[in-house]
Amino acid sequence: MADSTAWDAAKAEYGGTVARRHAHPHCRFQMNSMRMHERLNTVVLDTSRTLTDELNTTPQDMAFIGVHQVAVRDVEETYTGRFGMPRDRMILTLSEHGNAASASLPLQLSRALESGMAGPGDIVALMGLAAGASAGLMVLRL
């Protein structure tokens, strides 16, 4: 699912940071973090609910849920708070690795497999986010 209505909440115009040497006032990354946070919350909820409804499943059915981790607040407020993802089925990697962007999903899945949280036959979910605002959710059986 992608929702571009908030595209201007996070943008790099005129060639982005590569064009910075051209002294144009808009040739840098600009972000309205509050608007971006609000849109991503909505996209996360919409994407999650749509897919879980289509699959006739809930977050409680999943052994492990990997989510794009930008801030602990997002994990607590959006994923566990607003969507109701069980916190005990998530692995927080922010404190040790920081914002690893899209690499955080395979990192979390690897940790879930190593720890025994998830294994063959289990249902797991992976959710990634992108500025704009876009969200992708994959539910799979290991």
What is the secondary structure topology, with strand pairs?
Elements: E1 10-12, E2 29-31, H1 33-55, E3 64-67, H2 72-82, H3 94-97, H4 104-115, E4 123-130, E5 134-141
Parallel strand pairs: 3-4
Antiparallel strand pairs: 1-2, 4-5
Helix pairs in contact: 1-2
What do these coordinates show?
The protein is α+β, with helices and mostly antiparallel strands and 142 residues long. Helix content is 35%, strand content 18%. The chain has a single domain, classed as Peroxisomal Thiolase, Chain A, domain 1, CATH 3.40.47. It has four helices and five strands; from the N terminus they run ββαβαααββ. The radius of gyration is 17 Å and the shape is globular. The model has no long low-confidence stretch (mean pLDDT 80). This is Beta-ketoacyl-[acyl-carrier-protein] synthase III C-terminal domain-containing protein. It holds the Pfam family ACP_syn_III_C.
Q: Which key features would you list for this structure?
A:
alpha+beta; Peroxisomal Thiolase, Chain A, domain 1; three-stranded mixed β-sheet; two-stranded antiparallel sheet; 35% helix; globular; acyltransferase; Beta-ketoacyl-[acyl-carrier-protein] synthase III C-terminal domain-containing protein; Thiolase-like; transferase
